[in-house]
Amino acid sequence: MTLLHKLRTPATLKLASISVDFYKIIICQSANSPRFYKTRGIVRDGMDRDIACQISNASIKQAQAALLDYLHCTRSLQFSDAEHISRNSPNFLGKLLKKVSIADSDIGESITRLLCFHPINEFEPFFESSGLVPYQYKPLLKRDLMFLTDDDLLLENYHVLCNYGIPRNKIGKIYEQAGQVFRYEYGVLALKLKAYEELGFEQSFMAKMIVCSPYLLIGDVNVDFIKSMEILRKGGRQCCWIEQHLSENSSINWSQLHTLLNLLRNTAYSEEDLSLLLSRHPGIVFESSGEKTLSLIGFLLKFGSSMNQICHMFLQFPQLPVGKFLLNLRGCFLFLNEIDMEAVDIQKIICSHSLLLGSYALKKTNTLICTLKVGKKRIRNVIMQNPKEMKNWVMGSTFGPLPNLGERKKSQMLKIKFLTDLGFEENSREMVKALKVFRGKGAELQERFDCIMQAGLDRKDVIEMVKSSPQILNQKKEVLKMKIDFCVNDLRCPVSYLVVFPSYLSYTIERVELRVAMYNWLKEQGTLGAVLSLSTVVACTENFFIRKELTWGNLT
Question: How far is residue 250 from each of residues 81, 212, 287, 342, measured CA to CA in Å?
Fold first, then answer.
């Protein structure tokens, strides 16, 4: 007769009912009775919301008692294991409650009957009670195993970890990150734990370290861990201090941590300096296993800072997470780049004021420009004169526009003077039109005017060009020279043609080149009905040019 048929016998069902009643009494009295081991109250987190809302605490206790009875009496798990699993697997318990009628007067008996006729995969509640959630433990379930007792090595190593002082709800993390630990033969895991104790580490300390870094139990004694601990101890940091600054919820990469400690010790810090750094800012070493600090060091080294400068900065580090400091520093770099500051100037500011830039989060570039009511050039000048001014532009601060230095008014006066010298009448229509079109500073207009004259044109001709197309002076001297050179050398036009068609200087070289290339191709094909001027080819709109092009192409 199979085990399932044996479970269905009246005698077995009666015994199960008696056992459930017995465990009901134990669980219901547990709240008022002293215990020699730590237990938890009713856990609903993770249970299906609909089930959790419909069922009472008493019914949950009955279901827990039924699961406890099944695991301990029927499946022969140790009582402490069975109790922990039954009390700390709400998601699995919710799945069982879905399969029975919640309206039943005795939920415990319903769960018992369900378990008798439908054996469960015991690894699900086991992994859940070990601290894993369904999406974490489902890939770990074995297809060929349902009962925990069939995996004796798993239970053996599980008990070794429990007896060593590792919380049961943290063992799931060890299984997830270092699953091979639970396949060690009898006695192997205990020897590995003892090897660390023989190096001078206390059991309570190692229990926390193993939770933080389960891979410490894989292979031989971890060399990076041992060397990191030696450096920390030489810096005056004992195990109890290290334990306080490490979180069980995070994973420690001892290889990365050792790289950082070794770098700090060998480049700039004596043992006393390292001790001072650790006492003031332990996060510089322990945050993300030193990853953020290594990224910060790499960032500053790229901008020319030396390790001595960086280590000196660490001793004055603000009470701020290293990751946040690095984020602020990168934000300042992006801001300086967005206001078009020269790379050399950015490098100087970051090297000399890295502590200031990393301590605060600047507002967005567009927000600063709108609030300060100045252009990028003015902001650049302010920062170059006093980089500490950026401290007033941080997130959450209130500030107004920068004081007006009269530059705009001065520039406007220079524009008027320039136009007056060219023969424009003050407040005339031509002057108003030109002033509206001009961009940039008034001092630059004369330089651009002289650039056009130097191409070989008379002053009076250039004045007429400016009156006709004042926008040609909105371009830099270098751009004007390129366009004039293209007109003379590539298009084979005399420079005097600019007097006839001054707006040529307003169009990009790419536009002129493409239009002329298409015009020449049509001429070679013999499809042009008439010879067209350069101004006609270049100045017309895109739509007009395409329409005329199709017309020209159909002349044949």
Answer: 26, 6, 10, 41
Q: How many CB atoms lie within 10 A of CB 542?
A: 9
Tens-place pLDDT, residues 396-454: 888 888 776 656 666 777 777 777 777 777 777 777 777 777 776 666 788 888 888 88
Burial label, 481 (beta-carbon count in 10 A; 0-12, 13-18, 19+): middle
- Are the C-beta atoms of residues 186 and 156 closer than 8 Å to each other? yes
CA distance 406 to 220: 74
End-to-end CA distance of the chain: 101
Residue 394 pairs with which residues in a beta bridge?
362
- Contacts with 325 (C-beta within 8 Å, 6 or more apart), sequence order: 296, 317, 318, 358, 359
Q: Compute the distance between CA of residue 73 and CA of residue 79 in angstroms, rounded to an integer.
A: 9
Residue 525's nearest CA partner among 491, 494, 499, 549 is 549
Structure tokens at 492: 């084979």
> Could you tell me which of 163, 178, 157, 173 has the C-alpha nearest to residue 248?
173
Cβ(293)–Cβ(322) below 8 Å? yes
Which pLDDT band, with edges at 50, 70 and 90, does 47 fall under?
low
